[in-house]
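job 3f2a | input accepted
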Amino acid sequence: MDPSALSPQLQKLHGGGHFYKKVNQLREVLREKLTEVYRLEQYDVFMVQSVSVGLAMLSHLLHKQNISLSLANHQHYQPIDMLFPHAVAEGRENSGVQIVTHVNPYTGELNRLHHPAKGIVVDASHSFATNMHDDLIKQGSIFLAPLHKHASVAVGLTLIAVRPEEYSMLLRSELRLFERATVSETPLTMALETINTPGWQPYNVASVDAIDLWLPDGERLQSIGEPGLPFCCFKVPSFSHEQRKAVKEMNGSYFEHSGTLRLSRWMRGKHGRPVNCTGSVFEDISKLWNIR
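job 3f2a | predicted structure (292 res):
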C-alpha cells in the first residue's frame, strides 16, 4: 500500500507503508501456526474480527453466486439469530446453504455434522479447540471459530476455515481480499505472543459428564446437552437474584431468554487429553442450592 494512504502523523507512528507490510507478515505467520496447532492442513484459513462479521461476508459472497445463507432449524447464538432468516423464500436463489451451530451455547446440544457436511456453514464457537475438535475438522466443510473462547488465543480474531475442494477459487480469493481489510495489528501480535509463550496449551480439555440429582426442595436437576463438553447446562426456570450473582463468580451464566444455567470449565491442555471436571461442577451446584 502507498505510504500516502496514512496521514503524516500516522506515518511517523507506524512507519508509513511498512505498517501494512508488517500486518500482512504477522497474519501469514499466525495462519501457519494456527494451521499446524489445530491440524487445519485440509483447509484454507482466513481471519476476520468476529463470527458475525465472517458470516456476513460469507452471506455476501454466496449471494453473488445466487446462493442464500439461512439458519438451520435449531437454536443459535442470539446475535446471529437476529442477522439471518431461519428460512429463505422460494425464488431464483438456492436456499440449500444453512448455518449450523455445532454446539448450542445455551443448552449444550450437539448438532451432529454428517460427512460430507456440504451445504452447511458451521458456527464452531463452542466446539473448536475442545474435546469436539476432531468431529469438527473431520466433518466440516466450512466453519467459523472465535479465537478468544476455548482456544484462548486473542480477542478480536475469528478463524474461517474452508475446504478448497468444496468452494470455488473465486470465493476464497474474495475472502482473502476481505481478510486484508478487517484485521489490525494488535490482535495478531497478541495471538502470536500467546502461541509463542513457553508451555502454552492450545485446547480447553475440560470435560463434564451428565449430571442428574435431586435438590433439597425436591426438584430434580438434570443436565441437558452433550456430555464431554467443557460446560454443562440445566433447565432452571426460576433462578434467584442471589444465585445469579453467585454464578457469575463461578465462570457461569444464566440465560433468562432460554431459562438455562451454564456452568463452564476451563482446563488448558493438549489435543486428545480430556480432564474430567464433573466434581467441581457438583461443588458449584452445592453452593448455588446450599446443599450440605
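job 3f2a | The chain has two domains: 3-196, 205-289.
job 3f2a | closed
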